[in-house]
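Interim report, section 4.2 (structural modelling).
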Amino acid sequence: MKLFWKNKDFDKRRKWAWPYVIFCLLLVVLPLIMVAIYAFTDVSGAFSLRNFAKFFSQSNAVNTLIYSFGIALITTVLCVILGYPAAYFMAIRSYRVPAVMVILCILPMWVNFLLRTIATANLFGIFGLPLGEGALIFGMCYDFLPFMILPIFSSIQKIDTSILEASQDLGATRFQTFRKVILPLSLPGIQSGIIMVFMPTVSTFAIAELLTNNNIRLFGSIIQDAINTSDMLNFGAALSLILLVFINLTTLIGNHADNKPSIH
Amino acid sequence: MSQYIIEVNHVSKQFEDGTMAVNDVSLKVEKGEFVTLLGPSGCGKTTLLRCIAGFQVASSGDILLNGEDVTSLPPNKRSVNMVFQKYALFPHLNVFDNVAFGLKLKKINRNEIEKRVRKALKIVSMSDYEERDVESLSGGQQQRVAIARAIINEPEVLLLDEPLSALDRKMRADMQLELREMHKKLGITFIYVTHDQEEALTLSDRIVVMKEGKIQQIGTPTEIYNEPQNSFVADFIGESNILDAVMVKDWLVHFCDHDFECADAGFGEDQEVDVVIRPEDFYISKWDSLTPDPSPEGEGSNKSPWQLRGEITSCIFKGVHYEMLVLTEEGYELAVRDYRCFEVGEKVQLLIKPEDIQVMNKECLYNTFHGVVKEDNHVEFLDEEWEVSERTADRFDVGEEVDIEVDFNHINLQDDEEDGVLCGEVHSILYKGDHYHLTVRTDEGVDFYVDTKDIWDKGDRVGIKIAPSWIRLYKVES
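Predicted structure of the assembly:
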């Protein structure tokens, strides 16, 4: 077999990727290495595991991590519950949902999330609703719902109409067709929706600060605090690394569930 | 109980955009028959099939299944199953689960399901593929699974929507034979949709030829091939020479400037008709000056049996036979098929036996319209004013309603749409030996029939003009 990087075309075109490669090295790989270095050293620069020991000994930090995961989980579940039906009705052609509806659902994505969050806080003020946990979950759902709708919408839209007709033809009712055909075929959409909502909500801090008047602190805020405090930079790096590992673990679990065994 | 498994009574289907996909179609199918709906794309065959399956609800008319009205019953409540053009297998299920889909919905016990799935897979020769992912199968294998999935519910009717069109030629031929075998073995009624006339001839007990939502002819493959009822059917099924002719009297027809004995009667005297002669029905031989004239002048023992003579203008080898074009002395171009090869430029003579001449009624003899006489020698029809000759106009009062007739060969087609009174598009073309018979459809959807020697392509935009002296007006008969 010919190796793809020996391919002449590949050779010619791969230089187009250089700008991105440099960008990635400078702004993704290098910072990651630095975070890792800081996490495993103390203020003097010597190797140390104290930062991690500190995290696991501080129940406050551990609890905040669990709480952040909990909030992210609730947000994600709510987004699935709210987003799936919306995506479903927009994607199934026979319902003839006008294209404008689709755009309206996705429109919030075009506005910076900080603007949206500040607007949400003001909205709660206007209606005299208290800021706090409820406002936080509402705000996160509002911010991240489009990221759930979009992948589900496209996974349902991709299903060939004749497959749905085949199901109906074989005796399935509308509901059976949904449960046995549409739902399983839209699982990859749900999965990427979950990743796109869960990962950013776990590490968010600005939304929490704005919608709870700084009363609820998520893990992101703790990291931010640590980094902003002069002698805690190494601790902050360790916290970042821990979060990164946990997020990666959750996505790994998600990916594993998707790999159905198949014989070829 | 009705003897017909399917009865389609005056079914029409009009879509929301106004197109009439199926127009007043009636069809009766007997139990166990293999019926093919055949026609070019857009002829309504698939829509009719989808009406029978229940995916489309007929706008009018009714559909009976086993004597029971199912016109507005949803597909999951009908005892018919469908094989889709692009297989439509469930990509998230393996072969076994795809086939078992219908049975699982019926809550049949596991052992019974396994038994029946095995049996169905055996019928389509896919026994060892139960655990396979459907996307790893070839097109032919996928279609077999789709057939197994459709027959497992033991439907009374199996509907097949161009099931072989996505397969390559060789595979298609194999599957055709297998489908025929399956049909015999299962004893289920098959309704098959295709645009491939060869496939229809191979498979069917009966063929329903459709065009623009209407049935053109229903008959066995031999009837459809040998006795087409109109020029559309003749042109669509197989190669054919379609010529303008005049039925002189019973058993005698005139075309290519000669009289021919034929096997048809009952058309009346001097009636304009179309004749069809299949290329393989010509007898062809070399002609030289020694052979007597192929004309009726020679009488008695001198009379030559050969009827036409001409020159070979093209000869193409087609494997089993040669496909040749003969230009007769009278200027008609005929397609002739023979096992022997004749060189281009060679003089030949042709013979047609009476039973090989198929005489058909023309759909219409001239363009007819309805309109109103206007001032200044004009007549209005199709929302346009057309000039007529003074002599014609004088016979009518202004404002009088009239019927209008224009001969096919007196309609002028203009390259530039702006030059015509009306604009249209060349909708279909039929070669008639020495001229083309075109159907030009105006933007308003009215058809003009045009005979012309000019070459146009399907889809050409043209302007339609008629010289004033060729527009004939008649008083409206009440």
